[in-house]
Amino acid sequence: MSGKLFVLYHINFERQIMERLVRFKERLKKGLPGYILNLSVLLVFWGGLLRKSYNYDTVYHMVVDDADVMTRIRGGRYAAALIDYALLKFGLRTTDNISITILLSLLILAAAMYAVRSLFEKYAPDDKLAKAGFYCGLGFVFLNVQFAELLMFSEYSIYYALAYFAAALGVLFYFRKKYPAAILMYAIAVSFYQNSVVFAAILSAFYILADEKMHLSIKAVLREITAVMLCMAMGGLDLISIRILEKLDIIPLSGKVSGLGDISQKLSDAFGSFVLLNKSGGGMLPGLWLPFIFEMMILAAVIYYCIKEHKADGAVFLLMVCMGSFALLYVIPFASFEFFFPPRLSFCFFLAQGLLLVSAYLCDFAKTHRLLGLAGVFYLFVHFIFADFIVTDHLVSNALDEVYVNMVYEEILKYEKESGIQVTKLAVMKDAYAPSCYSQLSDISAPVNARTIDEVPVSIIQVVTGRDLEKTDMPAAIRDKYFKDKDWDHFDADEQLVIEGDTAYWCVF
């Protein structure tokens, strides 16, 4: 009898395996075209960064002894620290082959986009033009000019991708009522990058709006509060964990001071940044107020429809979610002692804008759907054009950094050959006006294309030339004699580089 039971159990087990394989094959067949489409548009937007590119943090990661493991831990990015530590044990870093790292990042981001699409695709309209606008709205999550900065941290781009992928999965699991899995995904996401919980909260807020069919009720409000607070609580726990590790002297102070600070100044800074986002996408789009016009057009269409159909609560609900999502963008900047709101935090502004467009399709005005679709396609195309400018400028900036580093190094080699003295130290200062970006670049690139020679001159020399110079302070006597009050608008090695003894003194223009 026991033998028969074993056979029946074995047959049933095989049947379950086969059924799961069949379901997986069906899901793969259904989902693969969408995934390939996501990857394709990501490559169109950001494929230029598959070439070796970097910023100053990337260069530092290349040369720092522990591959930034302690920096990750101090920032509460424990999952990234674990991976960097494991890679280092095998003699690897994420910067060993930047092209592969960026490609892997895009592959993961395509999966994250598919997860976002899975949340909302049941609300997609049937009309082709309207549907194009709908999917453009979902695409704004990673297809916007502000997102460029995340991929320019070449050493960390794959961790950003993993953070947002885990966050998107967390939202999916949450609304499928798989709460332990959702909490696990949120925990993983925040241990890669804290802003991922803001991303998850905005996704959750707009999904509940759609799931409630834009009907405002106490139940809907409670759902919103619960979902959003769960996400933000995960971020709070991560911050608490950092403080606990500091109190136990397990890690040094993180340098990320939390606290109220100057509230009035923070409010002023937040208002200014929000105005700039609406005016020019944070300085990365033309100053024609395109983001603001895009928002107002959608809100006007939805409000008109809701008033006409006597569904004013729908308009109120949408405004609440929209305003709440914009407010969520500033949670992390406000949690810091000083206001800091770079593109790697503010890119979710365009996520909210895209989901605002998606939400408009909940309203039953077919003709307007086509107009919204056209607006969505046009707006995404504008982002594509200026994303291409930003990527091109980034590569030019890297090339100029390397040109100037090589010119400095040639002067060092020339000095060593003539004097017989080996240069072992480098002191660096800036002239009277040293802009953060090269003049050859577009103004829109300033936030994301900072000159590497400004921030990590010693490290970039080591990376480009292989020469490890000791960083030293600029003596007052040298500064006053050669560089004080000087201001150059181009590189001049004869005037900006002085070498005495075993030390080179460089004034960056």
Q: Would you summarize the structure shown here?
A:
With 509 residues, this protein is mainly alpha-helical. 68% of the residues lie in helices and 4% in strands. Strands 2-1-4-3 form a four-stranded mixed sheet, with helices on both faces.
What's the helix and strand layout?
Layout: H1 2-46, H2 56-63, H3 69-74, H4 78-89, H5 98-120, H6 128-139, H7 148-152, H8 157-175, H9 179-192, H10 196-211, H11 218-247, H12 263-280, H13 290-308, H14 312-328, H15 331-335, H16 343-346, H17 348-360, H18 366-419, E1 425-430, H19 452-455, H20 457-465, E2 470-471, H21 476-483, H22 493-496, E3 497-500, E4 503-508
Parallel strand pairs: 1-2, 1-4
Antiparallel strand pairs: 3-4
Helix pairs in contact: 1-5, 2-20, 5-8, 6-17, 6-18, 8-9, 8-10, 9-11, 10-11, 10-14, 10-17, 12-13, 13-14, 13-17, 13-18, 14-17, 18-20
The major pleated sheet works out as: 4 strands, mixed
Q: What is the H/E order?
A: HHHHHHHHHHHHHHHHHHEHHEHHEE
- CA distance, first residue to last residue: 88 Å
Q: Assign a percent range to the helix content.
A: 55-70%
CA radius of gyration: 26 Å
* Percent in strands: under 5%
Average pLDDT, all residues: 92
How many distinct helices? 22
Q: What characteristic shape results from the CA principal axes?
A: globular
Structure summary, number of beta strands? 4
The strands making up the biggest β-sheet line up spatially as: 2-1-4-3
Unreliable segments of 5+ consecutive residues: none
Instruction: Kindly name the structural category.
Output: mainly alpha
